[in-house]
Amino acid sequence: MDSKEKQLTELLGLTARTLTHLTASMTSMSFELMRSEDEVTRSAGRRMIDRMATISAGLDDHWRLIGELTGVQVSQEQVETVHEIQLQHKVVTPIGGSAS
Description:
Layout: H1 3-33, H2 39-70
Helix pairs in contact: 1-2
């Protein structure tokens, strides 16, 4: 493989990894929604989990193709998983004002 092909293969791997993490995060959030006391919210969580399963199956194909390109078989289970997503509070100072 030449340099450009290696870069493209690496980009494909990073993109698939990001999509895998995004799918795992959304699935986790959907399970949280299913814990709601509101039936509409629980139903939305169940539908989202079904959608994420479909997307995950597509990602399996991505990983298979990446494995064929690189000669290294990597299953989705071997990809680093997201254990926790932390949102950090950022203080934004308004223009001409002070942060509160």
